[in-house]
Design a protein that fits this description.
The protein has 207 residues and is of the alpha/beta class. Helices cover 48% and strands 13% of the residues. It has one domain (6-39, 82-196): Rossmann fold (3-Layer(aba) Sandwich), CATH 3.40.50. It is built from nine helices and five strands. The chain has a five-stranded parallel beta sheet with strand order 2-3-1-4-5, sandwiched between helices. Helix 2 (46-55) runs antiparallel to helix 3 (63-75). The longest helix is centred in the last third of the chain and has 18 residues, at 179-196. The structure holds ligand Z5A and magnesium ion (MG).
């Protein structure tokens, strides 16, 4: 059986990742392509509970510790992700390792090389859709500034870091367009990648 593709949507807060992940999973399923949603941080796990408390300012941890927890949160899901992909189901993931490095480089003040290391060897995304958007537009979207990191200056540097992490598998998508316009662009890329990776092994990140 052909494997599923690992598709990731990345971007700053409120760029529209969760909106687009849901639409993409629905569209793929409507086309008869098995696809599931997954998001990081996964706040439902043991480590995810600690991350959730940190993000909502209920605990305080050193930034290096938090970064390693975000990565551990991905590692604790690897076996399940691998099994799902091998069973032929495509995963559409709301944030992944690039979020880890892009945010940690700001919060820890360490370089991107240091920040990428804990995620080395995770299943590598077959596609990363990076939703890019002007910071001032972002600030007008709902639910802003309720959690840690949701400060404009912080988000600006995070956005720059994302672009430094860009690889050949990435596509930069202008996210300040109508939801359906953004969706159609992502769906087109997703269908191409799902077909391309059918017979290919799952690659490892940063290896
Ligand atoms: N983090 C980290 O530091 N390290 C890591 O390894 C990982 C994460 C994985 C929580 O992430 C925090 O964790 C995050 C990064 C850090 N930093 N902070 N703060 P999260 O994913 O749980 O939450 P979030 O990214 O902060 O925000 P979000 O709410 O999930 O945003 P979103 O998913 O990109 O956007 P949305 O919910 O789809 O849309 C936001 C609003 O805009 C909503 O009202 C929509 O209806 C609207 N929207 C969406 N698309 C459009 C368009 N096209 N036009 C107009 N309005 C739109
Ligand atoms: Mg979201």
């Amino acid at each position: 059986m052909s494997r599923g593709a690992l598709l990731v949507l990345e971007g700053c807060d409120r760029a529209g990742k969760s909106t687009q992940v849901k639409k993409l999973v629905q569209a793929l399923n409507d086309l008869g392509i098995p696809a599931q949603e997954r998001r990081f941080p996964d706040r439902s796990t043991t480590i995810g509970t600690v991350i959730d408390q940190f993000l909502s300012n209920k605990n305080d941890l050193p930034p290096e510790t938090v970064h390693l927890l975000f990565s551990a949160n991905r590692w604790e899901c690897v076996a399940h992700m691998q099994k799902t992909l091998e069973a032929g189901t495509t995963l559409v993931v709301d944030r992944y390792a690039a979020s880890g490095a892009a945010y940690a480089a700001v919060s820890t003040k360490k370089d991107l090389f240091w920040c990428k290391e804990p995620d080395r060897g995770l299943p590598a995304p077959d596609f990363v859709g990076f939703l890019t958007i002007d910071n001032n537009v972002l600030a007008t979207r709902g639910g802003w500034a309720n959690e840690r990191f949701e400060k404009q200056e912080f988000q600006k540097i995070v956005a720059e870091n994302f672009l430094k992490l860009k690889e050949d598998t990435w596509k930069v998508i202008q996210a300040d367009q109508e939801v359906d316009v953004v969706h159609n662009q992502i769906l087109k890329e997703a269908l191409r990648v799902i077909k391309d990776v059918e017979g290919q092994p799952i690659k490892k990140l940063y290896e």
